Known about the structure:
The structure is a homodimer. By secondary structure, chain A is of the alpha/beta class. Chain A has two domains: 1-104 and 260-356, Isopropylmalate Dehydrogenase (3-Layer(aba) Sandwich); 122-256, Isopropylmalate Dehydrogenase. Chain A has helices at 16-34, 47-53, 59-67, 79-83, 91-101, 125-128, 165-181, 196-209, 222-231, 243-253, 294-307, 311-326, 347-355; strands at residues 4-12, 37-42, 70-75, 106-111, 133-138, 148-150, 156-164, 185-190, 216-221, 238-241, 264-268, 273-277, 330-331, 344-345. Chains A, B: Homodimer.
Amino acid sequence: MGIKKNILVIPGDGIGPEVTTWGKAILEQIAADFGHDFTFDEALMGHAAIEATGNPLPDETLEKAKKSDAILFGAVGHAMYDNDPSLKIRPEQGLLKIRKELGLYANLRPILLFDELLNASSIKPSILKGTDILFFRELTGDVYFGEKVRSEDRNTASDLMIYHRYEVERIAHKAFEAAMQRGKKLCSVDKANVLESSRLWRETVQAIAKEYPEVTTEHMFIDNAAMQLIKDPKRFDVVLTANLFGDILTDEASQIAGSMGMLASASIGDGTGFFEPIHGSAHDITGKDLANPLASILSVALMLEIGFGLKEEAKVIITAVDKALKEGFRTNDIADETTNPYKVLGTKEMGKLLLK
Amino acid sequence: MGIKKNILVIPGDGIGPEVTTWGKAILEQIAADFGHDFTFDEALMGHAAIEATGNPLPDETLEKAKKSDAILFGAVGHAMYDNDPSLKIRPEQGLLKIRKELGLYANLRPILLFDELLNASSIKPSILKGTDILFFRELTGDVYFGEKVRSEDRNTASDLMIYHRYEVERIAHKAFEAAMQRGKKLCSVDKANVLESSRLWRETVQAIAKEYPEVTTEHMFIDNAAMQLIKDPKRFDVVLTANLFGDILTDEASQIAGSMGMLASASIGDGTGFFEPIHGSAHDITGKDLANPLASILSVALMLEIGFGLKEEAKVIITAVDKALKEGFRTNDIADETTNPYKVLGTKEMGKLLLK
Ligand SMILES: CC(C)[C@H](C(=O)O)[C@@H](O)C(=O)O
Ligand SMILES: CC(C)[C@H](C(=O)O)[C@@H](O)C(=O)O
C-alpha cells in the first residue's frame, strides 16, 4: 500500500537548486515505482528569499514548512554577506530560524563510507576502512541561539553559549537509543575542562547513560575528538555533541566519506523532519554543472527512512548510488587520478544516471 | 658572548614532569655548549598545586613566573576532575589564569613536519608533503574567559563568547608580520555567518589586512577550515584564529605532524614567554616511560628562538631531533609497522639520545 506525503522543497542558494532538482526527481521516481503519492510544493529561503521578500525566512515559507510532512532543503549562503560582516539581514538566519521554529533539535549525520571512495579521501584507506559513525548534533541551542550583543562603539561583540538541561536530555535520549540499535558505543564530546555549559552537558549525559547500561559511554574533549576523528575514526560509533562542536566535527568527518558532496543529514524533533546535504551553497561552482547531487539524493534516502519509515525505498537509493560508484562514475569532487575521465559526470548526468 | 637567563620550570601534572625533565636537560646542555648562563627555578601548577596548596595557580608560582625570563611548562589536568564536572577547583584554571595574568595573548603553534614521520600520520604522505603551517591562536579572550553562569536550580549553564577589537588587532598584527616573513599568505578562521564575535573578528582582520597589501588574506568558516586542514593542508601558510577555534584546529593539525607528541607551542604577549608541548597530561600513560619528550624538547627550541633570539641554538636542537628520527629512533606514539622494534625508545632513552 502506497502512502501519501506532502513534501516541501526549499532549494535555497548557490548550488542548492541544482542539487535539490535531482533529490526531488528521485522522490518522484520512488513514488512511481512503489505506488506512493508524493505531492510537492516549493518555497524560498536564504539569499534568494532576501532578494524576493527582504526576509531570509518569509512567513509563507514557514507556514508551508509547518504544514508539510517533510522538507527537502538545498543550501543557503552568499559571498556578498561573507565579505561584509556588517550586513544585518543574512541568509543563514533563515536556516537557523526554521530549525528553531520547527523544533529540529537533533541533527543526525551518518558518515556513510562507500568502498569505492576509500581512495578519494586524504586519509589512508587502511585507517578509514570499516568506519561507521552516526553523529547526533544538537541543533537549536548553544552559541548559535544565545543572545548576541554588539557594543554601541562597535568595539566589543559577544554571543552567549548556553544550554538548558532538557535540551541535553532530549537529544541524549535519541543518541543512546540509536546506539542501542548499533554498536552500543556512545562518545559525548564537550569542553568540560573549560566551559560551564559543557559541564552541564557532561553531567546530564552521565546521568542519562545510567539508563542505558548496555551502552559503553565515553566523554571526550572537543580538541581531542577533532584529532581522534582522523587518527582513528573506527573507534567511534555514535557521537553526541553540541551545536557548534557538531558543526565543526561533522564537516571534518566529511573527509572520511571522501567528500562533503556525499553526506546527507536529517534534522528531527517535535514535528516535520528536515533533510539536507551537509555541504554549503558553494558559490564558486554554482551554475557550472559541477556540483555533486549525491548528497541531496542521499538526503532523500534519509527522508524516506527516518521521516516516513520507508526502509526498502531508502535502500534502493543507497544501492543505486553504490552501483554508480562501482561502475566507476564520479562527479568532479570525488574523482581522482584513477578515474576514467569519460566517467567524470556533471551534476545533470549524475542525476540522470541515478534516476535509472 | 653568552647570555644570562632565568628560566622557570612548571612540570604540572601527568606526563608533564617526565617530559619537562628532558626539556630542562637540553637547556642545560645548550648553556654548557654555547657558554650561556641559564639558572632554573621550579613551581607548581594544576592538580599538583591543588594537592599541595588548594590552589591551581599558587601566588608563589605567579610571582616566580613574572620575574622569570621564560617559562618551560609541561601539562595540567587529571581524570578525577574530568569525571566530576561539579568540582569547583580545577587544574586547568591554573593554566588559564597564568595565560591571562602574564598577558600571553598570542599562542604560536608551528606545524613542523619531519620527513621521517610522513608515514606516521593517518593522512596520506602525498597530501602532507610540503605542509608548513604556523598557527596564531588568540589565548586570553573568547568563551574561555567570558562570564560563566550556572542557574540556581543548576539546570541552565552559560559561557560568554566575547571579543574586544583591540584583542583581535594585536594578535592580527603579529600574525601578519609573521606572514610577511614566510609565504605571505594568511587565513583567518571564524564563524562570521553565525556569531557576532566572529563578525567583529572578521571586520577587524579585514581592516588590518589593508596595512599588509603584500599578504594574500582569506577568511574561512571554522567548519570548512576543519575540513580543508586535512583535505589540503598545503594550502595554508599562517592561520589566525580565536581561542576556542584555535584549540580545536591545532589539535586536529597535530595529525599532520604524525603525533601530538611532536608539537610545541610558544605563548607570547606583554612580557615573559611561555613554552609548552601542545599535548596534554595523558594520565593513561603517566609514569610508564612511554611519553614522547620531543614536544618538550622542541618547546625549548621555540624558547631559544622566539624567547631569547638564539636562532643557532634552536637549530641545533631541531637538527638533533631530525637526526634521531633519520636514524630510525621513535617513541611509541610515532612508531609504525616499519619501525625497527629495537629503535622504539622510552621517554628516558629518547631524552638521553637527544642530549648526545
Ligand atoms: C550555514 C550554517 C549556518 C550552518 C551551521 O553552521 O549550522 C551549516 O554550516 C551547517 O552545518 O548546516
Ligand atoms: C588544558 C586546556 C585548558 C587547554 C586549552 O583548551 O587551552 C589545552 O587544551 C591547550 O590547548 O592548551
